[in-house]
């Protein structure tokens, strides 16, 4: 799908430094926003227990929120209670009802006090040292506002049972920086980047983007389409230094349609400063070939160069890119996956029988190395199966993991250490968390200390 369907005026905004030592004064009587440190460093997984629990899709769901308890599993496999302290080392009581791994560097959590359960505060967790960061708005308001706060999207509970899982709307780069959109949810919104700056965790506001935004390893962002006036709609390329460039190639299948039908842009690790498209070449109405095109900024202009001619007909729509920056476009004919490591390193892999990759609408979960394919559609024969592809070695495991017969797969998260956290249904009402480590070992978590596990996330 092309980005010209939705037109935005794009812009670059300032930088928001987040942290409890920003100098912003919280409201009188507030204690929750004073927390600045946790014991969440050296953590393998976190989980929340409660006395009761309903259907939850990424958050704790309990009828008695005061019963929720927050635990960590350390790298030593020991379980201990998670605690929070302020800058003076004083323990601050807080109830956590949501925590989620974001990248190799960061996680996010939502907390509140028993005295004011309606006033939620969202914090970014720096996993290296357990330090907590939030926005100046949260500090000033003693809570995180859904509409205006850069962390506001993590306060939304969803319209149904989906909870506040945002892994489908978050992208990370090889360095562990996090990109996410606030607002919009389907049409795009403001793009934020969580990263380190001067020793502090920082949220940079990049600008408004469509839902099809991309970034490359140089930190450039392809943001979508911009209307320059007079119906002149062009694609917008925002360089890491803030410079902006437009190009007609990223909009309406390119300026040379129908002779050249350009695809949606994507990035590869082999060319950190570039973006790519898969294009279809026609002679009149007769298809001739599929090509890989590379785009660079040269002398102030976006320049397109054809860098590869495919031996098969490829799809020119959205291309899945692994966390390692390897492209996985769809082949239009046959049960094959194309693997693009570089323009001069393109191969094809025949999909195994029974693999989830054979479903055109499979859902991908990415780790630093692997791509996991799953589909929670219970009408599919193998809907409880998770398949894995290693783009580096070009090997596929069709039956990497299958959920036990008594459970129904609902969703899959994956941590940077290739640990899968599987949300599964049991008996049509309960929610169970199944964890599969990098060696394929399975653990089922339904209770701890006699209390139900109502949320779990690998770190």
Descriptive terms for the model:
5-stranded antiparallel sheet, 1 helix, 36 strands, disordered N terminus
Helical residues, percent: under 10%
N-to-C terminal Cα separation, in Å? 33 Å
Query: What is the subunit organization of this protein?
Result: single chain
Strand content: 35-45%
Shape annotation:
globular
Helical run tally: 1
Summarize the main sheet.
5 strands, antiparallel
Helix-and-strand structural type: mainly beta
Write the layout of secondary structure elements.
Layout: E1 15-17, E2 37-38, E3 43-50, E4 69-74, E5 79-81, E6 84-85, E7 95-101, E8 106-112, E9 121-126, E10 131-133, H1 136-141, E11 170-172, E12 178-182, E13 189-197, E14 200-209, E15 214-215, E16 221-227, E17 233-238, E18 244-247, E19 260-261, E20 275-283, E21 286-298, E22 301-309, E23 320-321, E24 327-328, E25 336-342, E26 345-350, E27 363-366, E28 371-374, E29 385-390, E30 395-402, E31 407-414, E32 420-426, E33 430-436, E34 442-445, E35 447-448, E36 451-458
Antiparallel strand pairs: 1-14, 2-6, 3-4, 3-36, 4-5, 7-8, 8-9, 9-10, 11-12, 12-13, 13-14, 15-16, 16-17, 17-18, 19-20, 20-21, 21-22, 23-24, 25-26, 27-28, 28-29, 29-30, 31-32, 32-33, 33-34, 35-36
Protein name: Lipoprotein
Organism: Breznakiella homolactica
Summarize the structure in words.
The chain has 459 residues and is mainly beta. Among the domains are: 43-53 and 66-158 and 165-208, no CATH class; 264-351, no CATH class; 385-456, no CATH class. It has 1 helix and 36 strands. The chain has a 5-stranded antiparallel sheet, with no helix packed on it. Strands 5-4-3-36-35 form a 5-stranded antiparallel sheet, with no helix packed on it. Strands 7-8-9-10 form a 4-stranded antiparallel sheet, with no helix packed on it. Strand 33 and strand 34 (442-445) form a beta hairpin. It is globular. The model is unreliable at 1-14 and 159-164 (pLDDT under 50). This is Lipoprotein.
């Amino acid at each position: 799908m092309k980005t010209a369907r939705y037109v935005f005026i794009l812009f670059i905004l300032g930088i928001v430094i987040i942290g409890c030592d920003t100098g912003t004064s919280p409201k009188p009587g507030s204690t929750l926003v004073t927390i600045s440190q946790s014991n969440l460093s050296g953590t393998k997984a976190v989980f929340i227990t409660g006395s009761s629990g309903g259907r939850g899709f990424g958050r704790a769901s309990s009828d008695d929120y005061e019963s929720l308890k927050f635990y960590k599993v350390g790298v030593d496999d020991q379980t201990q209670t998670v605690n929070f302290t302020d800058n003076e080392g004083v323990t601050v009581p807080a109830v956590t009802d949501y925590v989620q791994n974001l990248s190799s560097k960061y996680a996010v959590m939502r907390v509140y006090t028993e005295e004011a359960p309606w006033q939620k505060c969202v914090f970014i967790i720096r996993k290296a040292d357990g330090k907590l960061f939030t926005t100046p708005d949260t500090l000033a308001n003693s809570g995180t506002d859904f509409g205006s706060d850069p962390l506001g999207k993590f306060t939304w509970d969803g319209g149904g049972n989906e909870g506040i899982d945002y892994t489908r709307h978050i992208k990370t780069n090889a360095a562990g920086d996090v990109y996410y959109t606030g607002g919009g949810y389907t049409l795009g919104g403001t793009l934020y980047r969580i990263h380190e700056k001067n020793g502090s965790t920082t949220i940079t506001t990049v600008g408004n983007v469509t839902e099809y935004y991309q970034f490359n390893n140089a930190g450039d962002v392809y943001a979508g389409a911009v209307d320059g006036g007079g119906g002149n709609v062009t694609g917008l390329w925002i360089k890491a230094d803030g410079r902006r460039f437009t190009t007609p190639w990223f909009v309406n299948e390119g300026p040379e349609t129908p002779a050249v039908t350009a695809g949606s842009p994507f990035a590869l690790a082999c060319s950190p400063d570039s973006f790519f498209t898969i294009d279809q070449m026609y002679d009149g109405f007769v298809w001739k070939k599929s090509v890989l095109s590379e785009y660079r900024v040269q002398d102030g202009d976006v320049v397109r160069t054809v860098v590869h001619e495919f031996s098969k007909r490829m799809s020119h729509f959205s291309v899945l890119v692994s966390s390692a920056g390897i492209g996985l476009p769809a082949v239009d004919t046959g049960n094959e996956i194309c693997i693009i490591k570089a323009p001069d390193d393109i191969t094809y892999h025949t999909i195994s029988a029974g693999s989830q990759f054979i479903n055109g609408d499979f859902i991908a979960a990415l780790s630093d190395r692997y791509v996991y394919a799953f589909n929670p559609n219970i009408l599919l024969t193998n809907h409880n199966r998770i398949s894995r592809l290693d783009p580096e070695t070009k090997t596929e495991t069709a039956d990497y993991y299958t959920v036990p017969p008594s459970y129904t797969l609902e969703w899959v998260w994956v941590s940077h250490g290739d640990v899968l956290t599987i949300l599964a249904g049991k008996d049509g009402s309960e929610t169970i968390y199944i964890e599969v480590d990098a060696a394929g070992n399975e653990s089922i978590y339904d209770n701890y200390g006699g209390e139900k596990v109502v949320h779990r996330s690998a770190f």
